[in-house]
Target: Peptidase M16
Amino acid sequence: MSTTENTPQVRMTTLPNGIRVVSQKIPGMQSAAVGIRNDSSTRNEPEDCAGASHFIEHLLFKGTPTRSADQITDEFNSIGARANAYTSQEEVFYYAVALASIIPATFDILADMFVNSWLPEKEVEKERAVVLQEILMNQDTPSRFIYNQFHQGFWQGHPLGTPILGTSESIGSIQRNRLMDYKLSNYLSSATIVSVAGNVEHDRMVEQAERTLGALPKGIPQVKKPQPGWRSAVGENRHYQRPLEQTLFYMGYPLPPAGNEHRHKLSVFNQILGTGMNSRLFREVRERRSLAYTVYSMMSSYTDSAALMIYAGTSADRAQEAVDVCHAEVLRFCEEKVSEEMLAAAKEQIRSARLMALDDCETQVRRISNTTSLLGAPEPVGASLEAIAAVTAEEVRDVARLLFSGVVPRVESVGTGEGPGLPR
Model:
């Protein structure tokens, strides 16, 4: 099985002020994507700025000295570009997808927003109401609610446990000047990554980034770290009573941080455990026991912590059974080697998914930005696939024994009744 044929290469240039420009050239593609990442986000917020990173993400679209909010939207629209942004615990990412030929014009607008947005007072008040509604929406959506509660519970006492949206109280009270101070102290050149994927020239993007982002302040953002000896809050469970038709739950196990030596083995492990219709969770929880319509596993990885998370939705009277079965499937990896047929199929699923994703420039621009931040350089697709291909059944079993033997996960659930407890 060849893994590297026709896979695009990546390039990185670090500008004198510390901005990193990474690219993945994909010749022949009509589309391309460009992004600007701020590597300081929710986990670094002081108490009086809870939710500021996400609030500012909204406000960067609301005007600069040379473009009003309407002009920003109209300019993207007039050149056929689709712009968006998101905030996570460790990053704020602004990006746009467009025809490759207009990526330079698209990047000019993004760069103006990133550097020069001045958070107009009127727009702050309008967007404050929008963010408050977003907080309520997350509270009213059970799957989002329990994801957020699990995240805060698993990482309690850690900066990663800070809610991305903030709270109604913090968003309701933070003022425009404080938001501007926070932006100026965190949107720094050393924390900025420009990424581009598609049929775009690297050197041209380097020149444009140097010209348009040169006014970014220098310095290093203040990084909040957990107390020495911090551990994730596993071996605990919590249930939130709501009148729902299902009980939804997350259960989670600690993993080494992003970039760890086991990451490729864990990718294979996660594929077999809970990714797709051929996964063990799908077959056992859904197909054999009819416990759930939706069940899957995922890995959430950060610079200094990570988790394996399992999600399922089931009936209240069978929620404990579902938790027990999911945990048993994790421990099964510790007890037996996966078959060579299952291992080969999992590797092929990963390989196919990553190669097909090369056709999606938006996915690629996020990927190379993320790997640059977490690994120090963009990871070529071919290199990651070579590492996946080298994983053995013995290594999957050994990493499971190392990380999951004797571990009792955290369980958080929402629904009627008392909810499930810890796995039995």
